[in-house]
Each structure stands twice: as structure tokens, then as C-alpha cells.
Amino acid sequence: MKIKSILFALALSIGLFATSCNPSEANEGDTLAPIVGKWGIVKVGTNVNGVETLSDPPQNTIGCDHDFINLKVGNTMTSGDYSSTVSPCALTTTSGTYSRGDSKVTIVLNGVTTTYDIVNLTLTELKLRNGNAISVYIR
């Protein structure tokens, strides 16, 4: 009787383990990726009636690194803007703060607070939406 109980418990454990390990397609979009890091903006666009339109960001100066946000441990951040108006690829930075909820990130720069929905967060991509506006960043 003890052996049957042990076998039953073992079979139940294996069954529970097997059902908790879904294929990666079933977990598409689920991630434990950290948001902390330097993210360069690579696409901007809109989502209107479920149709997403993305293009190269006009704020990125041709020939310079991508403009970026650097989200740091301790909820501080730096926003970087490369411009060639005064000198080639001159970097202007602005310091601020951020906070992250389950599916949102709130950024405070120059006293302006903006909350974004986190559409996608992986180890290499961060996609944010504010209303219909979309921004895609990469590490």
C-alpha cells in the first residue's frame, strides 16, 4: 500500500511538473527580463484601430548613435539626445526618475510625468505605448 501511495505521489508530481512547463509559444510575451539598462530608440509610430505603423525615429540624427533612455538601479534615469546642431553628434542628457508596475512604466523628466504601457519587454527589446504612440527601444 505504501508503494502505491509513493508511486501515486510521484506520478502526480511528474504530471504537475509536465503541465507547468508549456512550450515557449504558449508563453509568448511573458518574460522576467529586467527593465534596467540603456535602451536606444530604433522605431516610433502609432497603433490606430489595431494597425501598427512604425518608422525610423526622426529624433535620431543621421550618423550619430541612437537617442536613448538609461534606466538605472534605484529608479533614476538619464535621457540622451544626440544632435549635430552645434557640433557633430553632441550629446545632451537629462536626468529624471522612473517607476515600474506590472505592465506600466512611469517616467518623470523635467517635471513632466508620463506613463507608458509596456507592450513588450525582452532581454533585447522594450516596446512602450502612450495612447496611440509607440516607441521601440533595443539594448
Shape summary: globular
Structural class label: mainly beta
Number of distinct beta strands: 9
Strand content: over 45%
Q: What is the helical fraction, as a range of percent?
A: 10-25%
Give the CATH topology.
Lipocalin
Keywords: Signal
Pfam families: Lipocalin_4
InterPro entries: Lipocalin-like
Domain Lipocalin-like: 35-128
How is this structure best described in words?
Helix content is 14%, strand content 49%. With 139 residues, it is mainly β. Strands 1-3-4-5-6-7-8-9 form an eight-stranded antiparallel beta barrel. A hairpin with a 4-residue loop joins β3 and β4. The protein is globular, with a radius of gyration of 22 Å. Residues 1-31 have low confidence and may be disordered.
Keywords:
single chain; mainly beta; eight-stranded antiparallel barrel; Lipocalin; disordered N terminus; 49% strand
Give a quick precis of the structure.
The chain has 139 residues and is mainly beta. It has one helix at 2-20; strands at 37-48, 51-55, 68-71, 76-83, 90-100, 104-109, 112-121, 125-130, 133-138.
Please describe the topology of this protein.
Elements: H1 2-20, E1 37-48, E2 51-55, E3 68-71, E4 76-83, E5 90-100, E6 104-109, E7 112-121, E8 125-130, E9 133-138
Antiparallel strand pairs: 1-2, 1-3, 1-9, 3-4, 4-5, 5-6, 6-7, 7-8, 8-9
